Amino acid sequence: MIRSINTLLVPIPTIRAHKLACTVMNEQVLVLVHIQTEDGYEGWGEATTIGGLSYADESPHSIKTNIDTYFTPLLLKEQPASAAKAMQLLNIHINGNRFAKCAIETALLDIEGKRLNLPISELIGGRVRDRIEVAWTLASGNTATDINEAKQMVAQNRHRIFKLKIGSRPILDDVAHVLAIKQALPNCRITVDVNQAWTELEAMKGISLLQNGGVDLIEQPVSMRNKSALKRLTEHFDVPIMADEVVQDPQNAFQLAADHCADVFAVKINQAGGLKAACLIGQMAHLAGVELYGGTMLEGPIGTAASAHVFSTYPSLRFDTELFGPLLLTEDVLTQPLDYQNFGLNVPTGAGLGIEVDSDKVYHYAKQAAAMLTTSSSLDYASNAYRETV
Predict the structure, then answer these.
(1) Intra-chain end-to-end CA distance of the chain, in Å
(2) Which residues are catalytic?
(3) Is 323 within 8 Å of 296 (Cβ atoms)?
(4) Mind listing the pLDDT tens digit for each residue in 294-307?
(5) Contact predicate 292/317, CB 8 Å
(6) DSSP assignment, residue 380?
């Protein structure tokens, strides 16, 4: 039986500014779920998103509020006997909230894996690879800085696949930035992520220039609401077009695959609504001839480990992954960091997630963050009260 469910907000600074078309990140707020059972097991899950509400319709604070207010009372009352029954219960009673559901499922699968002494990968289909290659995102916005950073990564055997975040500047400026980096790194794969910033006409112009310059993959160039434009771009260009934000739950992904709206799907466990849903999306894409890419919401090590278990089960992972989230953070919440080496990540082999969370550190950071938020709210209230009296 489930004894307790705690949801924690853990803000951690990034090692440098991370610039996207929609926002600039200087810290990542990890949303961690800690579930303990009456028979002494504990499991961890993560529901981290990017950039608050500037990126998606769930934010760290809304995720915590909804889990505390709706998920936790329901699960403690009904006491589902397995992760599968828990997800069925949540899907019946709670609409949407894919990130929150993913965190709950991850924590429960972590517990089931520990109880059975099996890695999560073996509970969700069985792994076919023990190591996954990991791309690094260059997102400083400065060409020289990005080139220097990439060359250091290659020299250190850390990364040889790079993603460039563009879309916040004029098209020709962004293209010049990308092609300068491509020319400086001729032996590296270069992906461009537009984060939905272009119209279809802008995408026609930008992708043509990028394709001619040898860029290897174009990610979500147009709005997720314009699936027809994505399909037209896919049919028009030779360079592979990857769907990202538009790939959500399995039903949505099925329609995208059936219509062949993209050459590649970026799959994210939180965006999919859970680990098993992400596995289902991968299977459907494979059957439809759509290639796969292991995406990230810039999760910390808990969500990254969970993602690695999922991607290790994919029959094909032609475009590799970008599970670099923990490497972007200044602090780790594990007692032993994830095993990054030789341009990739070794998938954990221990029971459950195969990681050990430093509970004391996590709860300490969460307590500090809550205290700072309370102090900040009190100061804002006092300031507003003062203004109302003058």
Answers:
(1) 56
(2) 165
(3) yes
(4) 999 999 999 999 99
(5) yes
(6) H
